[in-house]
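Issue: ligand-bound run for zinc ion - logging full I/O for the record.

Environment: standard queue, default settings, no custom constraints.

Inputs:
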Amino acid sequence: MRVRILGSGAGGGFPQWNCGCSNCRRYRSGLFRGSARSQAQLAFSEDGEDWYLLNASPDLRYQIESTPELHPRAPGRNSPIRGVILSGADVDLCLGLLLLREWHRLEVYSTAGVRAAITNGNCFFRVFERMTGQLRWECVEPGSAHSLDSFSFRLLSMPGKYPAWAIDPSDLRPDQAVSGILIESRSHQTLAFLPGLPCISPDLLNVLASCVIVLVDGTFWSEDELIEIEPNARRASEIGHMPVSGPNGSMAALSSLTGTRRIYIHINNTNPILDESSSQHRAVREAGWEVAYDGMELAL
Ligand SMILES: [Zn+2]
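Outputs:
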């Protein structure tokens, strides 16, 4: 299975249009050692022909154009993109669905709660009703495996909330709000995609230990990273992201996964690991981790 990281940044990307943090300022002035990043997005294919997406980022149009494997193969309207698996209902995760609206048949997989949070009261999604069968949205239960033609996947329920803008989120099942995604290849190797990881339970650690590759929430280096820039901002854990560093961080919590390829993704523009000359970037690499970048290729 081929896996392509189309985007490796958190919401807003790097640099972020309205951010004047040290990373964003230095990047704009050409003084930053590291690359820009679009918003987190994965694509994968078992045969190189049919491709599926993990989430649908607001940068998806540009990300598709930057990836020749995702271009039309024949004259006229066509695309090798067959479907999308969603991990949550945040705009950063699903806005790109609307960018796939041009008369293309699409399969979407998510929990029923995520589907409701995205589509309830949202007339924009009627753009997918222009032809019969344009959008086939299948609701899946967290924990159960789903087999498609060439791979299978499973959603892992994570502690987390529906977006604040969702209509009547109290009517939706809390265990369906935020998921991790496990993709199992035809050769029975598993990749975990966890762009929003609030904590690591013993059960989750066992699941991750059985994976060949884990793509883990690298949003924030530290718990107070946003507060240091904006005093009114919230702490990392208050917005569902376990920090990378510290005794309670993901680097320490996953230090036992020495046989698994560990990669940080969904990296916020404030995170010092984006700066390849920083001590934090070096610390992550010395602990055996990789830092995802746009265009990174993985194989299962
Ligand atoms: Zn910034």
